[in-house]
Amino acid sequence: MPKYKCKCGNPINLSDIPSPNQLLMIEDVDYDKFFEKIDAEELYEEMMMVVRCDTCKRLYVFESGFDEEPIMYRIEEGIWNKRI
User: Fold this and answer.
1) What is d(CA 43, CA 30) in angstroms, rounded to the nearest whole number?
2) Cα–Cα distance between 61 and 30 in angstroms, integer?
3) Least packed by Cβ within 10 Å: which of 2, 10, 11, 78?
4) Is residue 9 one of the residues assigned to a domain?
């Protein structure tokens, strides 16, 4: 998947490896399985892929790989979401 088109219209480039627009996410309880025994390949397989739009910052969470539709999150409007 070299590119993914964001809902805002921005094409998200995923061809760079590692990609600055692709994040890896794992549940805390699953991460604990790797405490003190890191197997990078096994850990990578447990992670969900997250694609971040570098324009609007939407997140696309692919819980079951790129073959299924992602869950999309976007930043809410408001002063409370600014970085501290």
Assistant:
1) 9
2) 17
3) 78
4) yes
User: Among candidates 33, 20, 28, which has minimal Cα distance to 48?
Assistant: 28
Does the residue 80 lie in any domain? Answer: no
pTM comes to 0.71
What does the alpha-carbon distance between residue 19 and residue 15 come to, in Å, rounded to a whole number?
Answer: 7
Q: What is the pLDDT of residues 24-57, one digit of tens each?
A: 887 778 777 777 777 777 777 777 889 999 899 8
Q: Is residue 40 part of a domain?
A: yes
d(CA 50, CA 71): 9
Does 83 fall in a domain? Answer: no
Question: How many domains, in total, are found in the chain?
Answer: 1
